[in-house]
Amino acid sequence: xxxxxxxxxxxxxxxxxxxxxxxxxxxxxxxxxxxxxxxxxxxxxxxxxxxxxxxxxxxxxxxxxxxxxxxxxxxxxxxxxxxxxxxxxxxxxxxxxxxxxxxxxxxxxxxxxxxxxxxxxxxxxxxxxxxxxxxxxxxxxxxxxxxxxxxxxxxxxxxxxxxxxxxxxxxxxxxxxxxxxxxxxxxxxxxxxxxxxxxxxxxxxxxxxxxxxxxxxxxxxxxxxxxxxxxxxxxxxxxxxxxxxxxx
Length: 248
Hints:
Strand order of the largest sheet: 1-2
Order of helices and strands: HHEHHHEHHHHHH
Number of helices: 11
Helix content: 40-55%
Largest sheet: 2 strands, antiparallel
Radius of gyration: 44 Å
Distance between the termini: 118 Å
């Protein structure tokens, strides 16, 4: 555009000017000069705002409903497994049972029609707990025989830093008691003194009490307690039960 060009304000139609100044007092001067078409658009704008305002309150209950726990009423023929599959319960029937154990009772296979079960947030929390428990290592189990007693004793000894091996324990047990946890010596000098040797590794009561290992019963006839205490004594006196090859 040339530098000398000037912007001219277009002349207004006398009729439009008169309409612009219609009104009362000076308030009419604040109104912009608009055409009839623009005025119509301005009238429809508040209606659009009103429709948005009307929808906003309806959205809040929907969010609250989604966060609330769901419930299910048991009908004839239902099982926890069937309900868990139908409602996609995280953790399966085990989590469903865990979340409703108080209502169901001790038998998860027995659910009565009409019983209300929680399927929502509580079931999910129960599933999370079940997953946490499953991640923990299972406690070892031991056979109730000489092999199991020795293995359990070795685990207790490991926790307390007591040396000894399976073979060393087994060898001494077979020599001392032939594997009988109720064995008792009623003929040697200890017996004559009133403190007979007892149990798998033939320990007298004063020695058993002095070298008893916490976590085992205070009973010299208990197989695990007897082995563990004897190994603790042997470690203190001989370095390990593995170094014992005769009467000790």
